[in-house]
Amino acid sequence: MNDDQTPCNPSFVIEPLSSMNNHTFTLIELLVVVTILGILAALLLPSLSRARTFARVTQTRNNLKQLGTTAVLYADDYDGMMCKVDHNPYACQVKGVAPGEVNWGRIFYEHMTGRKFAWRDVTAKTEMDNDPTYRKMMFCEVLVSRYGYPGAHEMGRSHFKMNVYYR
């Protein structure tokens, strides 16, 4: 170490921040940063959309699995017999719906949750429309995201179908 490089020499004194040049971003630098962020966002948004669609497909698969499990449990509870596709086990007349016509989805949902909907058409429709669990279980999330909920019906309604032919 030379004598002129001692720590007491003023050449080692750090300049105060106020004396340093204040460097601000130029307009071009700012535009470059904004452009890069825009490109990154454009790359990420399609993947987020695909992830959202994949999540909806997964939820629909899970709903179908739950409905299949419910069908097995229903058949087990009724000595191996499955309900008809459109069947009303109750002996009451519903306006616009003849006795014996209720969607299997409604019967399975009631069996699965223990919740019973009213058998009067306006009341049942309102109950199903206002039941978020029924709506999430019985309607395909992919179709709902594209077209919205189709609305409930007093017999019950679902995006999923069951085979008419059974033993």
What does this structure look like?
There is one protein chain. The protein has 167 residues and is mostly helical. It has a domain at 60-147. It has five helices and no strands. Helix 1 (27-77) crosses helix 2. Residues 91-98 have low confidence and may be disordered.
What's the SSE blueprint?
Layout: H1 27-77, H2 104-113, H3 121-129, H4 132-138, H5 141-147
Poorly predicted parts: 91-98
Derived structural class: mainly alpha
Compute the CA-based radius of gyration: 33 Å
Average pLDDT level: 72
Strand content: under 5%
Biggest sheet details: none
Q: Could you give the distance between the termini?
A: 101 Å
Order of helices and strands: HHHHH
Total strand segments: 0
What's the tally of helices?
Answer: 5
Shape: elongated
Comma- or semicolon-separated keywords:
167 residues; mainly alpha
Compact summary:
It is built from 5 helices and no strands. The protein is mainly α.
